[in-house]
Write a structure and sequence with these properties.
The complex is a heterodimer of chains A (213) and B (423).
Chain A (H helix, E strand, L loop, with lengths): L1 H6 L16 H34 L2 H15 L9 H22 L3 H16 L7 H19 L3 H11 L4 H8 L3 H20 L14
Chain B lengths: L5 H10 L6 H9 L1 H23 L8 H36 L18 H6 L13 H7 L2 H7 L8 H8 L7 E7 L1 H16 L3 E3 L1 H5 L5 E3 L2 H8 L21 E5 L2 E7 L1 H10 L15 E6 L2 E7 L5 E9 L2 E5 L4 H9 L6 H8 L7 E7 L4 E7 L2 E7 L6 E7 L2 E7 L3 H10 L2
Parallel strand pairs in B: 1-10
Antiparallel strand pairs in B: 2-5, 3-4, 4-7, 5-6, 6-9, 7-8, 8-14, 11-12, 12-13, 13-14
Helix pairs in contact in B: 1-3, 2-3, 4-9, 8-9
């Protein structure tokens, strides 16, 4: 995993792995195989990566953009030749980093999250028919959750997102380049920090969480 | 058992739904500190879980959305490759110029096109970028030069290839006509294509269409001619731009082949309905109709510059042919395709305005990225392209039952001189 991680960011930029000695026929076959592999990975992983990014960004367009960036980095990257679970972990890591960069790049994260809340509401308008008031409330809750998540250290935030998106401890460990045994601690700390950030927000309603110490 | 650490306690909440593992459970029951810690961990998890779940998308993405996203990605990959190719070529030209080798790279104004752009659209994955020169991948890409200009961005999407062939119903190549596309229109087009494939409106043997992007290296021009089924000659030395090697360094060829694309009437009707066109009626006889695409053989010669990097590409291909089989004519299938909801209106208009669609090959050109103009090659109508840097130039024309292309890190006049010397 370490080796793979070291390659993140290097992207598909050189031809070291291109197999210069192979004949054109082999190269053509390999190209087709690589294309099939790339497309299969895309179809298998796009949804979960989009969901991850969307949870933080709250914007379908930006979420998709981040996932596209992620797959552009995968294109031609040697990790594509690795087993599925390694590719998946690599993709999650790159996707999370790209999402964080996107959030950081905007500088005014709060304004972004406000906007995300509004967009969320707009996205939902055609959805569950809960009515405008529920839409507003839901958008507000989502905004608050994203603000709380944004306040967490990155690894804790990633750990929380991954766990509550249904990834196993092993998958989280592979994504964050951790020992599996360390996931629980990170998760425990992340959930506590999330609670503090979520309930400490200005408009928190502590009454709704009386049981939390 | 000693007190478990925080991580073990937290993991116990997930590892054992409904309870903690026995030894840990026993310990927690007898240890007030661990009991309290576990209770707090549970409360924190129970707060975080629904809150974070609320931020997710409403449900899993439908397969069509994933296909559309894949199509958009392919567009980005193609544009990225085009940009890298142009950048690399420009840098190579700059280096060559600095070494006193480049000839006329400043080019004649207004001529157009990027030999690097079009091929990029056709060979989606086969690239590993390389700065300051046309990379091996770019060479592989450029080897599909003629194929690229035949199908261009329409086949850039993996899922869209079969559906793209649907558009070929409008094609019977004897001459070209540029169909201008901006980025947004190109993406719109590819999204529709992907959906058509994802929903099964068009099905085909993708492999057949893919093969055209995978040329084989030929030992020499004689072998390339044999593979292609037509004669291929080297560019005469006197016509080669300064700094370009006298003989091709590499020759790539594909064989001609035929692809069949099948139309599914029920799925097409469902597609129209889903996209707000419940009124569209398609005769039953259309069901199972096939488009038969005759993909021509292609030969591309790569001529190196003095640094060994390719400077000039010369391509020759047969003309593309298309026919229909089954209960629908080519005219009728064309009408169905042009009526598809979601296609960019301006693009459809341009296609409809082609006066003789049976002999005209529409050539989608990303006009926000490529400049083009009409030209003449030895009396034949041609299109001249330039990339935004003005370093890459390309020419494309049809003559004598063949499509010809010249592209490279050369000036427009140099491209024309090479073109005039061919055939």
């Amino acid at each position: 995993m370490r080796a793979v991680r070291d390659e993140v960011g290097a992207g598909a930029r050189d031809e070291a792995g291109a197999g210069a000695g192979a004949g054109a026929q082999d190269e053509a076959g390999a190209g087709a195989g690589a294309q099939d592999r790339f497309e299969a990975v895309f179809r298998a992983r796009y949804g979960e990566l989009f969901a991850l990014s969307y949870r933080l960004l709250g914007d379908h367009g930006e979420g998709e953009d981040v996932v596209q960036e992620t797959f552009l980095k995968l294109d031609g990257h040697p990790v594509l030749d690795r087993p599925d679970e390694e590719v998946a972990a690599w993709l999650r890591r790159v996707c999370l980093n790209a999402t964080y960069n996107r959030l950081r790049g905007q500088r005014r994260a709060t304004a972004r999250l406000d906007r995300a809340g509004r967009l969320e509401r707009a996205d939902d308008e055609a959805g569950d028919g809960g009515g405008p008031l529920l839409d507003v409330l839901r958008a507000e809750q989502q905004r608050a959750v994203r603000q709380a998540l944004a306040a967490l250290p990155e690894r804790q935030r990633a750990c929380l997102l991954l766990r509550h998106a249904g990834f196993s401890y092993a998958e989280i460990a592979a994504t964050l380049d951790l020992a599996v045994g360390s996931v629980g601690v990170l998760l425990a700390r992340g959930e506590r920090a999330f609670r503090d950030a979520y309930l400490d927000r200005d408009d928190a309603d502590p009454g709704a969480y009386d049981a939390v110490p | 058992m000693p007190c478990p650490d925080l991580g073990a306690l937290r993991a116990s909440l997930d590892d054992a739904p409904g309870g903690t593992p026995a030894p840990l459970h026993d310990h927690v029951q007898g240890c007030a500190s661990c009991f309290d810690t576990l209770a707090e961990l549970r409360r924190n998890a129970e707060l975080a879980a629904p809150a974070i779940a609320m931020t997710g998308p409403d449900g899993p993405l439908p397969p069509a959305a994933v296909e559309a996203a894949l199509a958009r990605l392919e567009q980005r990959r193609a544009r990225l490759l085009a940009a890298r190719t142009a950048t690399g070529a420009a840098a190579a030209a700059g280096e060559a110029a600095a070494a006193g080798e480049a000839g006329g790279s400043g080019g004649s104004g207004g001529s157009g096109g990027s030999g690097g752009d079009a091929p990029a659209a056709v060979v989606p994955l086969r690239r590993r970028g390389h700065r300051a020169r046309l990379s091996a991948r770019a060479r592989g890409t450029a080897a599909a030069l003629v194929a690229a200009v035949v199908l261009t961005g329409l086949v850039a999407t993996p899922g869209g290839r079969a559906a793209a062939a649907g558009f070929l119903a409008q094609f019977r190549s004897e001459r070209f006509e540029v169909v201008s596309l901006n980025t947004s229109q190109a993406m719109q087009l590819s999204a529709v294509m992907s959906q058509l494939v994802a929903t099964g409106v068009f099905t085909g043997d993708h492999g057949q269409l893919d093969r055209m992007t995978e040329p084989a290296a030929a030992r020499d021009l004689a072998e390339a001619s044999r593979l292609a089924g037509f004669e291929v000659q080297a560019v005469s030395r006197s016509a080669l731009p300064r700094g370009v090697g006298a003989a091709p360094e590499r020759i790539l060829a594909t064989r001609p082949h035929t692809a069949r694309i099948t139309f599914d009437r029920d799925r097409a009707i469902a597609y129209f309905q889903r996209n707000g066109r419940p009124d569209v009626k398609i005769p039953e006889r259309f069901d199972g109709a096939q488009l038969i695409v005759q993909v021509p053989a292609i030969v591309v010669q790569e001529y190196p510059g003095r640094d060994g990097a390719p400077r000039l590409l010369v391509g020759k291909a047969g003309t593309i042919g298309l026919d229909a089989d089954g209960g629908a004519s080519l005219d009728e299938l064309r009408e169905v395709v042009l009526s598809l909801p979601g296609l960019p209106k301006e693009t459809v208009e341009q296609l409809r305005n082609i006066s003789d669609w049976r002999t005209t090959l529409p050539l989608p050109v990303p006009t926000d990225e490529v400049r083009w103009r009409q030209a003449t090659v030895d009396g034949a109508e041609a299109l001249s392209f330039a990339d935004p840097t003005g370093k890459l130039h390309a020419l494309l024309w049809q003559r004598g039952g063949h499509i010809w292309g010249v592209a490279g890190v050369i000036g427009a006049d140099e491209a024309l001189r090479v073109a005039d010397s061919l055939g």
